[in-house]
Write a structure and sequence with these properties.
Blueprint lengths: L1 H20 L2 E3 L4 E5 L3 E4 L10 E4 L7 E7 L3 E6 L2 E6 L3 E3 L9 H6 L16
Antiparallel strand pairs: 1-5, 2-5, 2-8, 3-4, 5-6, 6-7
């Protein structure tokens, strides 16, 4: 009976830790290099619907390392010594992707795809 209880408790603990930590990718290897709005919305959690505060974009020293990324596109940043979540649509990053480097040239020079989107679901 005791070993079953310990096994059940251990399993529950592992599942809860995995589930709670699974919402964000820890410390991606890129930075925020620009802000696309005059005032950046700052959120206390990545699930907040209303910003806790705002900060004037001109007062932020860039680049800012991205601490984590949530599944819904929020980025965790450290601003003035405190951690805040920001909307990924309000900032520009230097993250490698399909539109950086020579990838754009490869995509532009590729053959057309009838009734489809060239490169959809494929890396560069």
């Amino acid at each position: 009976m005791t070993s079953r209880w310990i096994l059940a408790l251990s399993t529950a603990l592992i599942v809860s830790l995995t589930w709670s930590a699974g919402y964000a990718v820890e410390r991606p290897n890129y930075d925020v290099v620009g802000i696309t709005v005059p005032s950046l919305d700052l959120f206390t959690t990545d699930q907040s619907s209303e910003p806790a505060s705002q900060i004037d974009a001109a007062s932020i020293t860039l680049p800012l390392p991205v601490q984590a990324v949530s599944d819904n596109g929020m980025l965790l940043l450290k601003i003035d010594g405190r951690k805040y979540w920001v909307d990924g649509l309000q900032v520009e990053t230097n993250e490698s992707g399909l539109t950086t480097g020579t990838c754009g040239e490869k995509m532009a020079n590729s053959a057309p795809v009838p009734l489809g989107i060239r490169g959809l679901g494929n890396g560069c």
